[in-house]
Amino acid sequence: MHIYLPDIKRQKGLPIDVLLESSLEDILGDSHESGQVEASFNVSTAGNEIILNGKIEVQTITECSRCLESFNLLYYIDVNEVFTMETGDKSKESTPHSLALESAETLTVNGDYLYLKEYIRQVIILERGNSNLCADYCKGICAGCGKNLNITPCDCGHKEDEIDERFLKLKDLYSDN
Ligand SMILES: [Zn+2]
Ligand SMILES: [Zn+2]
């Protein structure tokens, strides 16, 4: 996942389209996250800056946080980013200042390549929420019998307040002691 900068500098400011593809496992460094990442960028340079516009498309199989079924999740992340090219002095490379720049998403570029794997990894981690739903209307799992309510309506007669009642009785029992 890198861009060869001389290709872009040769354009003298005119943008070029770049398509980068990788597996999600490779980007995240986690073999449990299977999926595909496709980044399509419009890249141009202006002075010391590399301007990146486009989107990252992530396709993955994940677990619904409501019904716990695996499902296919597809999402897009818009990218509008400006990277600064380091022109001279490579001895500055690992100063706290340049490290701070990296963590502030303004990656400093040295040499002929703009390496985007770490940047894309951070963007994906920031963007994906903790709650993934297979559908907005996902009914989830019955707290009484554990049935997936999207597949079968449950007839266990469970109601939210029944649990609360039992729980309260239990609490009384313990507070008497
Ligand atoms: Zn679900
Ligand atoms: Zn039930």
Helix/strand layout:
Layout: E1 2-4, H1 5-9, E2 16-23, H2 24-28, E3 35-46, E4 49-63, E5 70-85, H3 96-103, E6 108-109, E7 113-115, H4 117-127, H5 160-176
Bound molecules: zinc ion (2 copies).
One zinc ion binds at residues 142, 144-145, 147, 154, 156, 158.
Q: Could you explain the architecture of this structure?
A:
The protein is α+β, with helices and mostly antiparallel strands. It folds into two domains: 2-127, no CATH class; 139-177. The protein is built from five helices and seven strands. 12% of the residues are buried. One zinc ion binds at residues 142, 144-145, 147, 154, 156, 158.
Approximately how much helix is present in the residues?
25-40%
How many helices? The count is 5
Spatial order of strands in the largest sheet: 2-3-4-5-6
> pLDDT under 50 segments (min length 5)?
99-106
- Give the rounded overall mean pLDDT: 79
Radius of gyration: 25 Å
How many discrete domains? 2
Ligands in the model, by name, code or SMILES, are: zinc ion
Strand content: 25-35%
Distance between the termini: 64 Å
- Structural shape: elongated
Classification by helices and strands: alpha+beta
Order of helices and strands: EHEHEEEHEEHH
Largest sheet: 5 strands, mixed
Number of strands: 7
